[in-house]
Amino acid sequence: MSQADRLELIGQLWQSIEVDELEVTQAERDLLDDRLADLRNDPDAGRSWGEVEAELRSRFR
How far apart are CA 51 and CA 13, in angstroms? Predict the structure, then answer.
């Protein structure tokens, strides 16, 4: 199976998972709650997706 075919299969499998089927631990919930609180307290503290994407593309070229 080619890499492209395998990636397509991975995508199909991932999309077949129902969000409600994913288990989230209490520690993960707490972490998400903390990050949401940080965002609410200082919404300008983060970086845009464009900035992050540009950095990743330059780093991994």
Answer: 30
Token pair belonging to 28: 């993960």
Please state the pTM of the whole predicted model: 0.52
pLDDT (tens place) for every residue of the chain, 61 residues total: 999 999 999 999 999 999 888 899 999 999 999 999 999 999 999 899 999 999 999 999 8
Report if residue 5 sits inside a domain. Answer: no
Buried b (16+ CB within 10 A) or exposed e, 12-41: eeeeeeeeeeeeeeeeeeeeeeeeeeeeee
**Domain count for the chain:** 1
43: its two tokens: 């919404």
